[in-house]
Amino acid sequence: MDHSDTPKARRPLPTPGAPSQRPSTPVTVSSPSPVPTASFYATTKPPPLPSRPKNPGSNHTAYVPPPRYESSSISHSPGFREPELVLEDQIAEDDDMVPDLIPQTDTHHWADNITTPYSTDVNSNWAADGNWSSNTASWQNTTTSNWATGSGSTSNALDFDSMDYLSSSRIDHDFTIDGRDNHQESLWWNPEEREKIKRPGSGMLAPVLAEALHDPHHSLFSVNITSFPSVSAISNTPPTPSISKDQAPGAGPSITSSSSSSGAQHPPNDLSPPPSENEIRMSVPHPNAYYCPKDNGWVILSWKSSSVAPPLAQSYIDGQNPALPDQARRRRTPSCIDDGEHPFGKTNKTHHFHKYEKAVDSHKLTPPFRQDEWQSLETVKQKRRVGTIMTTDLNISAINAEDVELLNENDADGPDEEGKLLDLYVCCQCSFYCVASGVIPGVIPRKHIEELLRDKRGHPPVGKTGEHAIALAFETFLIALENKLWKGNNRMIKVMSSGFQSKVGWSPNIKRIFELLGFIEEVVDRDSTLKPPATDLATPAGKQSRRKLLRAWLEIGGWLTDFKRVHASHFKEWKDFKLHVQLDSAREMYQTAIGAHADQIPRGGLSDTMLDAVRPLDAAWRGLGLTPTTYSGDLLAFAYLAQCRCDPVGTPKYFTYLTNIVKQLQEYGSCPTQLQELLVMEQSRERFTLEDVTTAAITLGFGVENVLGVEYDEEIPDEFVENAWKDCVKRAWRDHDHGSETHRLANDSFRILAESRGSIKLRRAWESGKNKYMNPDRAYDTLEIPKDVDDYMLITVYNMRLEETPMQLDKMREAMMVIAEVRDSDRLRQFISSGQDPGDVVVPTRPDLPRGLNQLGNTCYLNSLLQYFYTIKDLREAVLPMSKLDLKALDDEKLSDEDLKRHRVGGRLVTRREIIRSRKFINQLADLFFHLEYSETAAVTPTIELAKLALVTSRDEEEDEVDKGGTESSNDTDATLVEDGPSRTGILGSSHVSLSPGRSSSSVLGKRPRDLDRQLSEMDVDSPISQSPKDKDDFIVVSTRTGVSPEPITSLDSQAEASSSTDKDGDTKMSSLPATQKPPPPPRKREQNDSTMMFGKQHDVAECMDNCMFQIETALLKFEDMSESSDKTSVVKSLFYGKIRQRLTGADAQHSRSSIHEKEDLFSHLPVNVINDGVDIYDGLSGYFDDIVEFEGRKVRMEVTLVDLPPVLQIQLQRVQFNRETLQPYKSQAYVRFGENLYMDRFLDTADPSKKAKSKAIQSELNACRDRIRLLIEGKDSPFVTSLEHTRGFLLKLQSGSVPGIDAELLQQLDDETIRVRAEIDRLRARVDLLKEELESIWNDCTEAAYELTSVFIHRGSSPSWGHYFFYSRHLPESPDSWFKYNDSDVTVVSKDEVLADTTGSTANPYLLVFARKGADVVDTVKRFDPTMLDSP
Questions:
Q1: Contacts with 768 (C-beta within 8 Å, 6 or more apart), sequence order
Q2: Whole-angstrom distance, CA of residue 871 vs CA of residue 851
Q3: What is the distance between the terminal CA atoms of the chain, rounded to a whole angstrom?
Q4: Which of 632, 712, 905, 1054 has a 20 to 30 Å separation from 1356 between CA atoms?
Q5: DSSP 398
Q6: Cα 553 from Cα 477, distance rounded (Å)
Q7: What does the alpha-carbon distance between residue 431 and residue 130 come to, in Å, rounded to a whole number?
C-alpha cells in the first residue's frame, strides 16, 4: 500500500558495508540486481513500479545497509570490532556431554559466502515482489487518475447532493466546519429525512483515533537491522559449545569441548546459507507492521488519501453493515489537515473519522497480508480431521512435505477466502482513511513472556537482579537462534548444564517457549537436550522453520532492546550484549499522519485542576469523539457540530454531553465565550438533553407514582403519549393559579417526547395543537356567559347562541368542549356527544375502591376510626354476623348477677345496660360494614344512633339522665360499682406516683373519673395501658397522658348551644365551656337536624377508640360459655392487646432486690411523647420504656419491657403538651420520623442484656446532647445566638451614638461568644448523628419482631381544640406500595412518599401509627363485593 503523506520519514534498515549516514535520514537503497521474491507472496509478475506520487501515507519496516560500513564484508568493516570470545578455565565434562550453544563469535566456513547474498539482495527492497510493492502502483495510478478527474472538472466537483453541502442555508459561518444544513439539522428527529441524507453516524476526532489504533499505554516501533551476527566456517566435527554459569554478565557463552562416549547420533550440520536481507525483510508480517514489545506482537497500520474507496471485505459488503461516507463529498478534499491546495477552501478544523469494524480483507491489502504458515497449518490439519480438535501443540520441526503441499494448496485458494479482517477508519470530510489490525501475535505469546518475567524477577540468580536475569534469558534465546541461523549449528543443547541452568533454567514455561521456536526436547543418556529445528532451504518445512526463527529473532531482539532502554539504570555496568535490532518509535509518525500530533492539536488547554474536574465526564468527552487533554474551545465546538452533522439521531445525546461539559467549565470559571454562545444558540434551536426527556415525561404525568401510574419508555404507543399531553393540557385549564405555565410546559414536553421518539405523527399533532386558539377564557367569552353558571344554564345559553348564529357551530362546539374539560363535567361531555341534556350524571365509582363515610357534624375522627376498624380482617369478620341480632330480644333477655360477674372487660365488670347498649352499637356497626362492602355509591352515611353510641359512653348517658332528673335504670345492678383496678387518677391507698414531665395519668378501657375538672381537648389522648387488679404491693401502672384532663361536656341539649364551627378549610372547631360554668337549663324538646346535631358529651379520639373497642368486646361476650379462657380469646384482646412488664428500681440502681417493684400488665397502645424535632420512632419509644419517675417521695427508675407483642401494634404520638407558664395546652407540631418497617426486638424482655446496657448508655448521652442543643437553640426566651447578635447590634448603635464605656473589646467578646455557641451546636449535632448511627448499628441484626406500617392517623390544625382528622391505610395485601387516603367521603389513591413525608412546618401531623406483625395477615384493606365473581346463569 502506498503512503505519501509522511511528515516524519522513518529510518530504513541499514546494510553492512554501506556508507555512514545520519540515523534520521531516509536511505534510498539501490543494487545492480534485485533478488526475485515474487514466488513468496504471488505467482504473477506485477507491472514496473511507477514514480512515487505525493500522497499521504505510512512508512513500513524496511531494510537498508547500516550507515557505518564501507564494504559488504562484515569482518573487514572499518570502525567495527567483532565480538571477542572471552575464554575462561575449561570445565571438565563427562564424555557423554551433549554440546551446547555456539557463541556468536565462532567462525565457520560460511564467511566466504556472505558477500554473495548481501551484494545481490541489497536492492530487492520489496520491489521485485509482485504482491508487496508493485501492486501499489495500480492503487496509486487509480488514485491519481480519479483525483485528477474529480478535481479537474467543475461540474463533477459540484455533482453531489446526498448531503447537500453547498446549500444556501449553511450555518457554519462561525465555526470551521462544513456540511451543515439548517433545514436538515432542524429535522434531525425525522426518520424519513435521515433516510434521504444517509449520514455516516457517530464519529471521532484524531486524538481518539490515535488511542483506538492501539493501546495508548503501549508503544509501537519500526524495526530496523543495524548489523548481522558474525558468520564462521563450520567443520565436520565442530567442538561442542557449552554455556558457563561463571561467564560474565552480558558476555557471549564460553565454549568447552567434549566427546560423546554413548554413541548418540547428532544431526549433520545445516549447510544452508545465512539469512539474506530479503529473508529478514520477509520475516516481518507486513511492510506496514509495527512491533509492540508489551504484546510481543505486530500491528498493521496503513493510511492514504485516495479518491477510490478502500477495498472492503466481501463479508462486510454482504452483511448488514453501514455504508461508507459520501464519496462525492470526500473527493473534494484530499486531506483536512495538509497545507496543500483546497479548491473549495479549507473548511474543517481536523479530520472526523468513522469506524467500520472488520471492513477490510487483509488479502486485499497492497501488498496482501496472509497468515503465517506455521499458524495456518494447524487450521488445515483440523479441516483434514473433519472437526477433530487438536489437543497438542504444533511441532514445526515435524512438518512433512505433504503437510506443506496441503498448506500451499489451501493458500492457492486464498483469493476465494477472506484473510484477517481489519478495522477501517474513514474521514467523512476528505479522501483520507486508515486501516488498522489488532495485535498479530508473535512467535512467543505474551503470556509465556509474562510468566518468564515473573519467574526471573521472583527468583533471580545469586548476585544478579531480576532485570539481569531476564536479560540473560533473552540473550540466551538470541544466541540459540543466531547459532542456528548464522552459524548453521545443529547440535543438541544440553539443558541441564550449569551455564544453561544459571542463564535460563528449565521449567514447563521455558520448555514451551523452546517448543514454540521449534526446538524439541529429547532425552539422551538420561539427560534432557533440545534439538534445533531443521532449516534446510531444500525442503518446504525447512523454509518455514527458517522464516519462523527469523521472525522470533527480530521479536526477541526488539523486545530486549526495549527492555534495556526502559531499565537502562540496571545495565550501566553491564557488559553489553551485541544486539542487531534497532527500534524507532512510530507514535509521532502515525499521530502526524492522522492529524493527532501535538503540533497539529495542541495539548494543555485545561489546567490540572480543570482536568481533575472534567475527568468524571469521560463518557461525554468520548461521546463527542474528543479527549480532555486535547481540549480547546474550537475543537470542542467542532466535535459537537460534527457529531450532530454526521449522526442526527443522536443530537439530544450530543447536546447533553456539550451541556454537561460547558456547565462544568462554567462552574470553574474556565468556559470560553464561544462555547457559551454555542450552547445558547443550540437552546434557541429547541435542542434538549436526555434529562429534559425524563422531565418531559414526568410533566405529562408518566411515572408509577404520578398521574398516569405507568413508567415512560419507547414501547408506550404514540396514541397514549398524545392522550397524556391532552390530559395534561386539561389539567392546566383547571389550574387557575399556574395554568398558563403548566400549559406551556405541557406543549414543550410533548414536542420533546415526539422528537425523541422520532414520531412524525406526534410532531404533527404538536404543531396543530400547540397554538390552539381556544382556551377556557376564550371559551366563556365565545358563549358570552360568566364562569360561575351551572351546567344546566350553560347548556341553555349554548342552545340559544346556536339558534342565533348557526354559522358559529364549530367555534361554539369547541368552546363547549373546553369548558367541559375545565369543569370535568360528564354532563357536558354527554351533551356534546349526543346533543341531548342527560341531566345530572352520577359518575360511577370504581368497584374496587374503598367507600368513604359522609360526616355527621364534627365526626371526622369517628369516620377515620370506623374505616380503620373495617380494614382489620378478623375484626370485620367478627362484627359482620352481628347485623342479624334481634334487638327486641335483647331487651327481654335477663342476665343474673352471677352471669355478669363471670365476665370482665377492661379489667372491670360490666352492667346489663352496657351489654344491651354495646349490642346495639355492634349491630349498627355491622350494618355499616355491610354497606361499605356492597354500596355502589362513593360514600356511605353512618346512622346517627351509631355515631351517638360511639361518641358518648354509657356512664355519660347515666350522668345526663341524672342531671335531667331521670330515674335509675332497673337493669343496673351493684355490678356497676365493682371496680377491679385502680382509679384513673393514679392514686392507690397511700402510694402516689408523681410523673416526670411528659407523664401523667390517663384513661383506659373501663371506668373514668368523674370528679375532676376537665377541659375539652380534641387532641387529648388516653393512655394505652389497661388496668388490671392491684397487686399486693399496691403498685399501679404509670400512664403518660400530658396536660389537664378534659372538662365534662354539657348535656345533649346544652351542647347545641356550644355547637361546633368550621374554619375556612372546613375543619371542625370544638368549642368548650369553662370548668366553673354550669350547664344551662335544658330547653324544650325540638326537632334536631341530622346534619348539624351534636352528640352530647363527646370525647377525644383515644376515648372514642376506647369506647368503641369496649363496646365491641362487650357485645361479643358469650354468656353461655363460662370458661375462664373465653375472655382471653376475645377478638379485641387477640388483635390489639399485648403484655408488658414494669419494674421500679432506685434511680441509682443500687437498691436490693426487695426494693424492686415489678408487675405485668396488658396494653393496647404504646405512647410516644412528642415535644422536639429531630427524633425518630425509636427515640420516642425509648423514652417510654426507660424513664425516671417519683414514687413514694423519691426518684425511681421505671423500666418497661415487652413480654408479648400483639398482631396489631398501635403507637400513639402524644402531641398535646401543657405549657406550665401559660397553663394552657398546646399542640406540638414536631416531626417524628418513621418508616415502613419497625423492629421491636430492642424493647423485648428477652433482648440481649449487653446490647441493652450499651444501648442505654448511648441513648443517655444522645438525650443529653439533644437537650443541650435545644437549650442553645431555643433558650428560655430566645435563642442564644440571636440574643448575642441582638445585643451586639444594640451596643454597636450605642457606640455610634458616642455612648461611653462601649469599646471594641466588648463587641469582639460578643462575636467570639457567638462563634463559640455556633461551634458547640455544630459539634453537638455531629455527635448526635454519630451516636444515633452507633445506636442503630447495635440492633441492625435484630429483626425477629418485625412490623410493617399499615395505617397513619393525621390531625390537621394548629390547636389541640380544633382541626380536621383523616387517615391513610396501606393497600394490603394486594399492593403494599400503594396507599389510600380516607378523608371522610373522599377516598383517593396516594403514594407512600406522601404518607412518609417530612411534616416539618406543616400542621398536618400523624398522631396514631398502626403497625401489623409481618406474616400475621390481619389487614385486608379493600373488602368489596365483586359482581363479576358471580356465576353466570
A1: none
A2: 12
A3: 86
A4: 1054
A5: G
A6: 8
A7: 26
- The residue assigned the cell 410532531 is 763
1169 has which bridge partners? 1214
Count of residues in the chain: 1433
Q: Decide: helix, strand or coil at residue 1160.
A: strand
| 449, 347 contact by CB (below 8 A) | no
How far is the C-alpha of 971 from the C-alpha of 912, rounded, in Å? 6
* Interhelix angle 401-412/540-566, nearest 10 degrees: 80
Residue type, 549: L
For residue 905, what are the β-bridge partners?
908
Residue 407 CA to residue 540 CA, distance in Å, equals: 10
**Is 1254:1303 a contact under the CB 8 Å cutoff?**
no
Q: Give how far the C-alpha of residue 1093 lies from the chain's centroid of Cα atoms, to the nearest Å.
A: 59
* Per-residue pLDDT tens over the stretch 988-1000: 333 333 443 343 3
What per-residue confidence (pLDDT) applies to 1087? 41
- Report which of 697, 703, 696 is spatially closest to residue 1393, judged by C-alpha positions: 703
- Note the Cα 1244 to chain centre separation in Å: 39
Q: Of 332, 276, 404, whose CA–CA distance to 163 is shortest?
A: 332
> Within a 10 A sphere around the Cβ of 1220, how many other Cβ atoms?
8
DSSP state of 132: I
Write the CA distances from 344 to 172, 199, 1296, 1396, integer angstroms.
15, 21, 76, 67
For residue 360, the surrounding DSSP H or E stretch is: strand 353-361
Strand partners, 1187: 1198
Q: How far is CA 1338 from the centre of its chain?
A: 30
pLDDT above 70 coverage of the chain, percent: 69
Residue 1052 sits at φ, ψ, to 5 deg, of -60, -45
Q: DSSP string of 10-60?
A: PPPPP-TTPPP--TTS------SSPPP-HHHH-SSPPPPP-PPP---B---
**Strand, helix or coil at 1045?**
coil
Beta bridge partners of 1141: 1160, 1201
The single residue listed with the C-alpha cell 495485535 is 439
Give which of 1167, 1147, 1182, 1195 is closest to 1042, Cα–Cα: 1167
Place of cell 509495527: 290
> Do the strands 1165-1169 and 1208-1214 form a parallel or antiparallel pair, or are they unpaired?
parallel
Residues 295/146, Cβ–Cβ less than 8 Å = no
Cα torsion for 720, 721, 727, 730, to the nearest 10°? -140
Specify the residue for cell string 533478488: 35
Q: What is the DSSP letter of 688?
A: -
Q: Residue 1413, SS3? A: strand
Cα–Cα dist 1383/1338, whole Å: 40
**Those residues with Cβ within 8 angstroms of residue 924's Cβ, 6 or more apart along the chain or in another chain:** 942, 943, 945, 946, 949
Give the predicted TM-score (pTM) of the model.
0.53
Q: What cell numbers appear for 270 in the block?
A: 545445516
Query: Cα dist. 435→222, 941, 1204 in Å?
Result: 17, 82, 78
Q: How far is CA 143 from the centre of its chain?
A: 50
> For the segment 440-454, what is each residue's pLDDT rounded down to a tens digit?
999 999 999 999 999
What is the average pLDDT value for the chain, to the nearest integer? 74
**Residue 303: in which H helix or E strand, if any?**
strand 297-305
